[in-house]
């Protein structure tokens, strides 16, 4: 057995660099094909609901993000702000938040929903309308935040899709952190 | 010294178990949530829409196969070449997004340090794994400066132990 192994190693050592690379390439292709075959089999056997292609147009992505959540238009958000009822929740990272945010917004990235939930709960119970936003049509952070707050018992958090950009496009006021 | 590390049997064993374990585990986790993984791929903003699901369904299994091969020590030249190819591709994708200012956690453009910080950390971690993969590639395939490495090294190590 040991002699066989040594013979194989010696045979390997006598191969040229080109032959060694070809061997590695053939094996890598074999492993790749095995992975592809298992992937195809797994999808068919498990009957996964994900199609082989599609589902990533902007419209489909937004619809998936908003599943089970309530969207608010920028006009409605503006009216809520004017009536003093808007509680804006900025789901972006703190650096982006510090460079500018909607008036009076709290910076609550989805990972911090737990820590901020008590403060938000009190404000919502006092009659404020919680409006989560981030930047980009297909940005998932605002819907992740709304969902995270929902899981902590704060229902009715609305999502302002592409909120930061759309709010600025309208020329509405923004705040910059000092 | 450098050559001994490059061709050390023990270093190779640790590297292949670490890389194999990481790839197998990562593939197994991703294969359980193809929609979630597809979203993660979408966040990189590199692949065209029609290819996202295809990659999300196949890549986890390729990772598991290559991880399994590394753990078992089967087809090591091919497994180390494939693992290096995958890690180099991931590093390129991370570098591209770092340069474009995209936070790969959410696919958002980030002006902030925190998003870029995550991407930088992912890139450094990926490059460290790539270094392990390259060590395996040199040792097991003998491509590059480590020509004739496997037989020479294993025999050489045996001689060293005998002399001691």
Task: Describe the 3D structure.
- The complex is a heterodimer of chains A (178) and B (164).
- In chain A, β4, α7 and β5 form a beta-alpha-beta unit.
- The termini of chain A are far apart.
- Chain A has a 5-stranded parallel beta sheet with strand order 1-5-4-2-3.
- Chain A is of the alpha/beta class and 178 residues long.
- Chain A has 8 helices and 5 strands, in the order αααβαβαβαβαβα.
- Chain B is mainly α and 164 residues long.
- Chain B is 82% helix and 2% strand.
- Chain B has 7 helices and 2 strands.
- Chain B has a two-stranded antiparallel ribbon with strand order 1-2.
- In chain B, a hairpin with a 4-residue loop joins β1 and β2.
- Chain B is globular, with a radius of gyration of 18 Å.
- The two termini of chain B are 17 Å apart.
- In chain B, 45% of the residues are buried.
- The C terminus of chain B is likely disordered.
- Chains A and B meet through α1, α2 and α5 of A and α3, α4, α5, β2 and α6 of B.
Q: How would you concisely characterize the structure shown here?
A:
The complex is a heterodimer of chains A (178) and B (164). Chain A has helices spanning 2-13, 17-46, 58-66, 74-82, 94-98, 113-125, 141-151, 163-169, and strands at 70-71, 86-90, 106-107, 129-133, 158-160.
Total count of strands of chain A: 5
* Secondary-structure element series of chain B: HHHHHEEHH
Helix percent band of chain B: over 70%
Low-confidence blocks of residues of chain A: none
- The Cα radius of gyration of chain B reads 18 Å
Strand content of chain B: under 5%
* Poorly predicted sequence stretches spanning 5 or more consecutive residues of chain B: 111-115, 146-164
User: What Rg of chain A is obtained from the alpha carbons, in whole angstroms?
Assistant: 27 Å
Question: How would you describe the shape of chain A?
Answer: elongated
